[in-house]
Amino acid sequence: MYHDHKPGETSTHHTHAWEHQAYITRGTGIVFVDGEKYPIKEGDFVLIPPNADHYFGNTGTEILSRVTFNPLASENHLG
């Protein structure tokens, strides 16, 4: 899945039972995971553990773009 976040925008704050990865293709921001904020930038690859409370946020002045890789098991839960 491909996601764009405008400056100041965040993804929804959520959890799910599977891990997933995200590759940052453009911009700068943060990834919030279980109460901690980590800086992210173009070229970073992020692993979100299963059941982690998380979201992505754009802290920069341009679009923050990411490609998210979900395991096949997640397909039954997407909607």
The H-level CATH homologous superfamily, spelled out, is Jelly Rolls
Corresponding CATH architecture: Sandwich
Q: Which secondary-structure class do the elements indicate?
A: mainly beta
Main sheet: strand order? 1-7-2-5
The CA-CA distance between the termini, in Å, is: 13 Å
Residue-averaged pLDDT, rounded? 91
Describe this structure in words.
It is built from no helices and seven strands. With 79 residues, the protein is an all-beta fold. The protein has a single domain (2-64), classed as Jelly Rolls, CATH 2.60.120. Strands 1-7-2-5 form a four-stranded antiparallel beta sheet, with no helix packed on it. The chain has a three-stranded antiparallel beta sheet with strand order 4-3-6, with no helix packed on it.
